[in-house]
Structures are given as structure tokens and as C-alpha cells.
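Model it.
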Amino acid sequence: MIQANPLFDPTSRSTAASPNQPEPACARIGNLVVMGVSGCGKSSLAAALCQSMGGRLIEGDDFHSAGNKAKMQAGLALTDQDRASWLAALGHELGECAGGTVLSCSALKRAYRATLRAASPGLHFVFLDIDLEHAMARVQARAGEHFFHPGLVRNQFDVLESPLGEPRVLRLDARQPLSTLCDAARDWLAHPIPTQPDHFNEDKTS
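Modeled.
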């Protein structure tokens, strides 16, 4: 059984807390998305963070429709329309949680991330950055175990709009060991983060 950690425990705040007692980190960070292209390791990092901090895990792939999974298994790239209901479902899940939830989701486009931010104000993103060669090798290694077709990896890079410059985003090198990534994300989340606007110039090119 996973033990709750105050960093991701929305019930940990006491109404009679001592003035000298630090505010629980969950009050500052809210919910978190671990994002990136297929093969970057977002599901592994999201699970590791939840395991170490006692948060709620949402595996984005579980919310794809049967039709979406069939398309990806056949090597057909999803369209914005295909992803619309998927993102709406993920946004609903995030909106049900005041904090302490970690979502693994590709969130490739700014518009997709805007949908999630609208559902969960103050949302944080950990962007697992990886090159095509390493991503392709990882996806090919799991072929037969996951519905995602290796032939779609390049398309994910074509679609990706970097989140760098957006509010509350941490970039990590996805090639680092999982334990290193987990420690870096936890350290980032555990420290006070200056308030930043949720609105930014979406017209700029990536």
C-alpha cells in the first residue's frame, strides 16, 4: 500500500496548523503532468513519483477510446479531432482533484496543454525531452507489449510543440536514470515556485 506523503496529500493541511509549520507543498503545486513523445518514459516517471510521494496516478493511455487505440496499433496518426474527447476526459479527471494527481500524457501541442490547464489551474508539467533515435529504440523494444506502433514515433516529433517558455514547466533529459529524474522532479516540486500567469503568447512559433 502506498503511503501518502504531504507533498501530494490534499488532506494533509491542518486547519489549526502552527504559524511556524511550513505550508504543505501540495498547496503550492496542485496537479502535475509528465509529458513528452512516445518512448520518453513518462509513464515510468509518473508512476515513480506517485510511488515515492503517495499521489494519485492517471495513466493517459488508459483513457484512449478503442478506436484511437486501433488507429495507433495500425500505424495511423491521431488527429486533433481524435484527441479531443481523450483530452476532455483527462481534463475531467484532473478537475476532480484539488491536488496530488500525476497524469502521464503526451500533451504534444500547446492547445492540448491549454485544455488541461483550463481544467486544472496552476497545472505543472515535467517535459521529458528525448531525441528521435533513443525514442525509436525504446518503442521498438516494447513492440508487441503496447498498442503504439513504432512507425508513429517520427510523427510525434513532427507534432510536438515544445512547452519551454510556458508557465510551470520543468525540462528533464529523458535519457537520465529513472531515479535521477524522480529526484529532480521532486526537488523542483518541493521548493516554492513563483506565481506565473497561465496565459502566454500562443501565437509564437515553437
